[in-house]
Write a structure and sequence with these properties.
This protein is of the alpha/beta class. It contains seven helices and eleven strands.
Length: 237
């Protein structure tokens, strides 16, 4: 079981309109290198065996030449076009995975550049142990449930509320079946891989504490925060 094949799906499709940039946010420079570089570097230095990049249609050659080949990422075994929505891109990435044998599949957002190799390795071990897991962190703030007019309805116990991150991890065989069922159902109310596994595989995911630094770069302000996090990491080495 410890020799199970390990594959990372790196989600790098989408426009990232909230970044207010003229190109995909994962190509923006952060401390001199593309955002996508840092996530790929962490996976390259981890125990993951191979990486499949899912990019915006038409970006395949650019990503291969300007990121994968330029920075020497040897674990990238495939670059495939994604879909309009994230869940469609994940499904297309799964279709690009080998059908023979079992594999531990880690699905990661390319816009989360601060994942660390040791966190990736932990997720691999926990996926083998629990069959499905996801990196997440307990929320710091009080959360309110509101109605359609934004009036407070209830306050969930903060102890039981976690904010989701990536990687979100599963066994490839279960994930393939779950995503195939979900795509056939026409369900559009899908926000992450944990939800797919709950609804269509009956599989609960173990939450793996990650780091509050494992943020997703979404807005211009996040890039400023990201530079601070990255400089901290570089200073620690």
């Amino acid at each position: 079981m410890d020799q199970m094949r390990t594959i990372a799906l790196m989600m790098a499709a989408g426009k990232g309109s909230r970044m207010k940039a003229d190109r995909n946010k994962i190509y923006l420079e952060l401390c001199g290198k593309p955002v996508l570089y840092y996530a790929l570097k962490a996976y390259e230095e981890s125990e993951i065996g191979e990486i499949i990049l899912v990019v915006s249609p038409g970006d395949e050659d650019y990503v291969r030449k300007e990121i994968v080949e330029k920075y020497g990422f040897t674990k990238v075994t495939g670059i495939v076009p994604g879909g309009r929505e994230r869940f469609e891109s994940v499904y297309l990435g799964i279709l690009a995975c080998p059908r023979e044998g079992e594999a531990c599949l880690l699905i990661h957002d390319g816009a989360r550049p601060f994942i660390r190799p040791d966190q990736i390795n932990l997720c691999i071990r926990e996926t083998i142990r629990y069959k499905a897991c996801a990196m997440a962190m307990p929320v710091k703030d009080t959360i309110r449930i509101v109605d359609e007019e934004c009036f407070s309805l209830s306050t969930p116990n903060r102890t039981h509320v976690w904010q989701m991150q990536t990687p979100q991890c599963l066994l490839l065989s279960e994930g393939r079946k779950a995503y195939e069922t979900m795509m056939k159902s026409g369900d559009k109310d899908i926000t992450d891989d944990v939800m797919v596994m709950e609804r269509y595989a009956g599989r609960r995911s173990k939450m793996i504490p990650g780091s509050y630094d494992n943020i997703k770069l979404t807005t211009p302000e996040d890039m400023i925060i990201g530079e601070t996090i990255l400089n901290k990491y570089l200073g620690d080495k």
